[in-house]
Amino acid sequence: MKKLEIKKSFNSNKFKYGGYATLLTAIVLVILLVANLVVDKLDLKYDMTKNKLYSLSEQSYKVIDKLNKDINIISFNKQGSENQGIAEIIKKYSEKTKKITLKYIDPSTNPQIAKKYSNTENAIAAGSIVVESGSKFKVINESEMYNTTQDQNTGQSSVQSLAVEQKITGAIMYVLNDKNSVVYNLEGHKEQPLAAEVSKSLSNQNFTVKTLNLLVGEWKPASGDMIIVSSPAADITKDELAKLKDFFSKGGHGVFLVNLQKVKFPNFDELMSTFGIQIQQSLILEGDAQSFYQEPVYLMPKMNSHAIMNPMVSSKLPVLFPVAQPITQLKVKKSSLKIEPLLTTTNKSWGRKNITSTATEKEAGDIDGPFDVAVAITDTQGTSAAKIVVFSSSGFVNVAGGGNLDLFMNSMNWVQDLKENISITPKDLTQEGLKITQGQILGYSGLVVIVIPSIVIILGIVVWLRRRHL
To answer: How confident is the model over 387-403, as pLDDT tens digits?
Structure first.
């Protein structure tokens, strides 16, 4: 009798439903086990951080794809003790191509190897990274991989962004290039010195900065050299004008940062006219509230389509451009000139002719916008093309955040035809608190406290009603 009951139980609905549930559970467990084994074997990872903290940018991949030499990246750490965030980033380089080899060396147990790459400026220590190709190498100290900011009230420093990719890709381009670009910083006219962050970025992207005084000695620029003119407070001389005209007529490259001046600089204006432009002596005020920051003179101009601007546009990095003046194209200029606006104000902007006035409304004699405040110029008249970028303000390079520094560095790379050497933005490490409205709070609370528990209760009742008759 009992045997018949046992045999009969195998044909019951309870056994069938229980068997199906057990089989389904077993299948799911097997799938999860296999999936975990596959993921572990393939080392599949997906960067879900907000700003792709552990991923390489498109610029870095372009540099890697064009490698024609073998590269060694040496991390001076005992493998397993290195900073995991930095390790994840540098591993991406060797995973992308076989031309890049990643090595880990413990400097404490291999002092001779560490000594090979040490000098008075860069001593190898735990955390240092060396990028090497052939006999050329560059040392990156651990402190250089972070950008810090200092609280003006407390004086305490804190890490703001991660610059590992910026440093590694820059070092790769350094060891690959036989000759680095030389940048001459013009002096002798009370020019403003380049900000520390600008000088640091120039060094990161392998520009060699030298000072140049055209009033002293003889200047013999080499092919590929360029000039920076940083907000001169006095006019250049006729002799300097002749030297600069000769330099650019032979395909010279340059970046000009021009501040608002109370007096005219005739010789400097003549130099600008050879580029087909004139910088008008008036202060721009923006009438569109969406296109300035706090004050009408702190412009947030429209970014036009151009190789210099496109990286900021795609990354949605705004540019803050303070205290600018209009750049206008001359009606009569050389046909070999190509002038491309980079930044433009709205048609609600105007230029104040009386630059000493403090009025915030348009006055008699003021000129109507829109205005270009930054332009890229190419002159194809000579044997090689001259390339110039002119900014009608120098203050933008001192503004932290946004796309300001990228704008300057991309301009430097554009005039030097360094298409791959686009400024790589450091990965922001600052964290913002979650901001939700009162309505969102009520909505999420209702979902968690009422909706989800109700669904669970209803499903439980349905299952119970179905099974009570089995």
So the answer is: 999 999 988 887 766 77
